[in-house]
Amino acid sequence: MSLLNKFFKEADKKAAISWAFYDFANSSYALLILSFVFPIYFKEVIVGVERGDFYWGLLVSISILIGGLLAPIIGAIADYDSRKKIKFIIFALVSMVGTAFLFFSGSNKLLLVSLIFLISNVAFELAQTLYDSFLARVSTKETIGRISGLAWGLGYIGGVIAMLAFKPLYENGYAGDFEFGYKLVFPLTALFFLLFSIPSFIFIKEKPENKNRESLSVLIKHGIKSVVGTIKNLKRHKNIAWFLLGFYFMNDALVIIFSFISIYARTTFGMEFKEILTLLLIIQIIAFPAVIIFGLLSDKKGSKKILLFTIVVWAIIVVLLSIATTKTMFYVIALLTALVIGSSQAIARSWLSKLVPDEKRFEFFGFNSFASKIAATTGPVLFGVVSVATGNQRLAMAALVPFFIVAFIIFARIKEEKIESLPQVSN
Fold first, then answer.
1. How many CA atoms lie within 13 A of 240 on its CB side?
2. pTM here?
3. Residue 122 lies inside a defined structural domain of this protein
């Protein structure tokens, strides 16, 4: 048996790899539009340095909150009308088109650009939620962890490739003649996103189900009713309710780390921009094999055990960050971070796929998305408040330890349900 066959076992290799490549594709958006190239342009050109941070933070928070609120409703609708794949494709395409239109951004276009980004990012969040929900459809009980890990790992590789491929366009900034090339990154990111998403658009298969064709208003009413009903009957899904709460605390801490690690490195350790960029690239590269290995371990040892282990590692990382005094120590901590940076989320995704009932799969992933989005809007505020109030970033970083402790306690009490099989779709 070949290594590839051993890895995928009974899972459909073509469907699983195609699904995983969407993570590879959308990482270009996550890195260049949400984290690196566009935020700088938005702050310094579209808004202005003085107000840039406020408007960017406000815009991102609003888009994340809208996406989080809509996700359970869209998920419930997808479960009801059984037209999940087309919704995934539509939201992904809307995000790509919006990203391409950012090329027309510039000074004195704050309202227009904000609207384009808002639509693009909400669509991105909804597409991601629907995409995550397909994990059980391309996996088996024995492979769900490794396939989730493979996708997360490919995401890191995709981000590195996109960042390096477009580097000649953004490395000189946006001043003067360089502005056209800088803005060209936006439609090229959309093209990268589209090209590598095509396999998932084609080869992810839906179960043959009777599709309920209703008007949009009827679907929306059903979606809202289903979400309200699920909330009222959470006692029937205690494990999932506890999982979502644990995920909130874990993700709250992780969002803070992801949002502030570069600022922390520069402010507390005095690292130069090039040093930080090099370190981020190294982390991305190491994270690729690490997340696949942890995925394999979760299939063999159980998602619960491996997730709890990564949470302990995160707590250690946070403590070390708060007491480290040299760049050398920071580099060592960064390497440790690379081992678990994607593993916690990838394993959590595969564990949730095992817990949720198939008839409410997309709705519950919507709730999971809501939990992560709320964390993304509250976590960074906490770090900022503690840092400003104390004047010490180390204390703000140490304040994350309780989040990991609470998450560990909650996840530890959840029963790791044994599922005989996961739903499969034949080609």
1. 23
2. 0.78
3. yes
